[in-house]
Every structure is written in structure tokens, then in C-alpha cells.
Design the sequence.
């Protein structure tokens, strides 16, 4: 009886350890899925910029939030540009694409 109770306590402790490890694994998995989605969106934005021959500037000034400026040439000579500035590349590209759709 005492041996059985001791074994049950050991098994319960092992179950708690496994549950804690599983919860930690789920948290890491969720963080990784979020990062993969973010990288996918950034990759799509970069692909769009590449296709548009866009000029991309990443700026980080002391004490100010980072910003990204994307400039898209409107003519082959690059004399005229359309640009957007936003906290992330994806937001700047979305703004440019929205302006592109509105112009059509």
C-alpha cells in the first residue's frame, strides 16, 4: 500500500512535469508560428518592392521609433517617385498598394 501510494505520487509528479513541458512547448510553438507569419508577410513585401524596383530605407534614430520609407519609381528614368513611410515594411507597402488600387 505505501509503495503504491509512493508510486502514484511519483507518477503524478511526472505528469505535472510533462504538462509543464507541454505548455512551454505550446508557447514556443505559438511564438514560432507568429514569427513565421511575420517573416512571410515581410518576404511578400520585399518581393513586391523588388518587382517595382523600389528603393527601401530603414531608419532608426535615437529616441524615435523605427520607420521604413519605400519609394517606387513612376517613370523609367526614376525622375518621379511615389513613396510611403511607416513603422514596418509591410505597412509602407500596403499604403503604396492601396494608393495604387485607389488610382485605378
Sequence:
Amino acid at each position: 500500500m505505501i509503495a503504491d501510494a509512493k508510486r502514484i505520487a511519483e507518477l503524478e509528479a511526472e505528469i505535472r512535469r510533462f504538462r509543464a513541458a507541454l505548455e512551454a512547448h505550446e508557447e514556443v510553438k505559438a511564438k514560432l508560428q507568429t514569427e513565421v507569419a511575420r517573416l512571410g508577410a515581410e518576404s511578400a513585401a520585399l518581393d513586391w518592392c523588388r518587382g517595382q524596383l523600389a528603393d527601401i530605407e530603414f531608419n532608426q534614430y535615437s529616441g524615435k521609433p523605427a520607420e521604413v520609407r519605400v519609394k517606387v519609381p513612376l517613370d523609367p528614368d526614376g525622375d518621379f517617385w511615389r513613396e510611403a513611410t511607416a513603422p514596418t515594411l509591410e505597412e509602407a507597402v500596403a499604403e503604396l498598394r492601396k494608393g495604387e488600387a485607389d488610382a485605378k
